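Chapter summary example.
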Amino acid sequence: MNHRLRVAVLLLSTCFVLIGTVGLASCTLQTSTTPSSSSVASSSSSVTSSSSSTTTTSSPESSSTTAEASTTTVRSTSSTTLSPAKDYTRIPTKKKVVALTFDAAYDPTPLQDILLALEGVKADATFFLTGQFVRDFPDWTKKIIRAGYPIGNHSYSHPDFTKLSDNAMRREIDKTAAALIKLEASDPKPLFRAPYGALNKRVLSVLRAEGYVSVFWSIDTLDWKPERTPAQIKAAVLDKLQPGAIILMHVGSKQTAQVLPELLKEIEARGYGFVNLREALLGVAR
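The structure predicted for these 286 residues follows.
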């Protein structure tokens, strides 16, 4: 082979080597930058999972459940975080006035004589009715309404509120208010008297949340007892008479109906006037 031919072969061999090297580098570079099918599948799976998670969180059903759970949490803690409702055992005043209050849960027959006695001396009074009384004796309830006396909420079925759940208390309160409003009575708020006078911090917190104050009493006549005499009822009131006293009596007490005309005159003779609790507590109830 002559000299020129050898040079040509050498140059051609060098070109083949260079081309092969560049091709190999190019192939290596392409392999390292292009995701494999398994990598693509893994990445796709990750995106799908993320998308599915987002959809679940924002779905109406899930949002509703979340909102409901949140509401439940807030509501269950509300009774423990709210300040208790005010509890009045007397009217905060130094004036010589008293509040006559009558609870009604059963027998309405003495009510006519009670209303006549109050009308006889133009005495204000406040009636606390259970929802069952309103339901069972609508005509008697209407007599109180027509006479213009304020009516307070005394629960629906007269249970011990300290033994009820928060929601059960609310149902008792709401059913009574609805029964009164159905008869075109005024909303009983803010006046509430707990059955049996049973109260604790939890009960007072629920009352506050529902817009009520608790009305207890200064003088308990115990007139619901069958053996209680008219003279004993009169003495119980007069012995403890003081400015701002809240006097507890019952619509179903025949003894109270009997002694009331005489008792009212004696209270007036001692220089006292009568107020209803809605007006008396209007400026201090909230």
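To summarize the output: Residues 3-33 form the longest helix (31 residues).
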